[in-house]
Amino acid sequence: MKKLTTLALALSMAIGLSACGNPHQSGSFPDPSAGVQWPTQTINVICPSSAGGGTDNTIRAFTDTWSQQIGQSVVVTNYDATPVAMTNCAVADPDGYTLVCHQNTAICQYVTGVTDVDPKSDLALVAALQYMGENALIVPADAPFNNFDEFIAYAKEHPGEVSVAIATGGPAQFLWGQVMKECGVELNMVVAANTTDKLTNISGGFIDCGQVDVANAKSYEEVGKVKVIGVLSSTGESLPEWPEHWSTLHEQGYEIGWDMRLYMWAPADTPGEVLEAINKSLEAVMADETVQEKLALQGARAEWYDLEESQEIFQKEYDSIMSTGKAIGISMVE
After folding, report:
1. Would you state the pLDDT for residue 2?
2. Which of 16, 83, 156, 167 has the fewest Cβ atoms within 10 Å of its own Cβ atom?
3. How much is the pTM?
4. How deeply is 33 buried, as exposed, middle or buried, from its count of CB atoms within 10 A (0-12, 13-18, 19+)?
5. pLDDT tier for residue 138 given thresholds of 50, 70 and 90
6. 99-121 residues labelled b (16+ CB within 10 A) or e (exposed)
């Protein structure tokens, strides 16, 4: 991570944190084996997106319950950009009271140089948490293709003409890079960073394809605004609640998947026993029925993994994104 201290100073001068709270006098989550007591004050969870967005909603789905269980205030601080959010966590005191939650976008933006913060070395992983749900590939309702096979065939016949929605440095750029590499097609990547932009531009016929959450894809298809040509899934299997004509890319013969989950990090020098205490406190949170119901409404699935399991999940995704970035020529990491 380059020039982190200088950047942090600039951020502290330019941005006022919204995090504040009234810590309770009682409630700590002790780890008897390590002799550590955590927490004893308000916890600040940094979110790298605006309030009301998808990432923000999945974080807030569990913070109230978490606060109740550990007996301390948990507040969410929102920033509009990943670099700002990750940096503010990386330079915070490594005491377990400043955390950041994000998906693999944090890895993608590091690989592409959007942020200097390496989530592997500049932060300490606390937990791999909820799976964010499958994504459907949508196209305009009158598109000349009805499944992913036909989409690829059309793209081969019209090299560079078929447009796909991405956010620069985000997971979608890696996804479509993988598609071009493995399927031998040339696509035109167009910036449409959020779900609203994708739905508007694809249903209007301005962009040919993009991935959105299953709930939005289903609702837009039901009213005839878009078609679903395939689903990106971590398991490769269709779910019973999907329309019968939907199928995953794996089921269509393409080894292209999607594994988006929420990670939680602390500053790099946070003691191991504190990381363990934070991680352990989240187990009961993710098992809570209210949390599970809130996440299910967003198409997400509550999950919890211990530190070792979380690291294995993260490392696999980190290595995959790093490899893909280099293979398609967008990596800025040596």
Report:
1. 43
2. 16
3. 0.80
4. exposed
5. very high
6. bbbbbbbbbbbbbbebbbbbbbe
Token pair of 294 as six digits: 């809130």
Note the pLDDT tens digit of each residue in 171-181: 899 899 889 98
Q: How many CA atoms lie within 13 A of 106 on its CB side?
A: 32
pLDDT in tens, 278-297: 999 999 999 999 999 999 98
Maximum distance among all Cα pairs of the chain, rounded to whole angstroms? 67
